[in-house]
Q: What sequence folds into this?
């Protein structure tokens, strides 16, 4: 049994769960509005918000929010597109 527990521990260490941080960006789209530009993001948990700056691309906004979002340890963050 000890050998099995050791193997499980090693597998958990090697899994992708412990490899840094992950950010998930959720954008809701409706039929006919698939090309609407991303203007703002907010963190669903901590109330943080990021508005797109003049000249900033959607990808740059996502990268900025990803780097600035408050995390509780090395976990994931969920960012939602603003309305």
A:
């Amino acid at each position: 049994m000890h050998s099995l527990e050791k193997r499980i521990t090693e597998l958990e260490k090697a899994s992708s769960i412990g490899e840094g941080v992950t950010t998930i960006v959720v954008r809701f789209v409706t039929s006919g509005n698939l090309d609407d530009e991303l203007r703002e993001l907010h963190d669903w948990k901590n109330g943080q918000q990021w508005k797109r700056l003049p000249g900033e691309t959607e990808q740059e906004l996502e990268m900025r929010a990803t780097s600035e979002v408050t995390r509780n340890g090395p976990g994931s963050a969920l960012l939602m597109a603003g309305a």
Notes: Helices lie at 2-14, 58-68. The two ends are 53 Å apart (CA to CA).
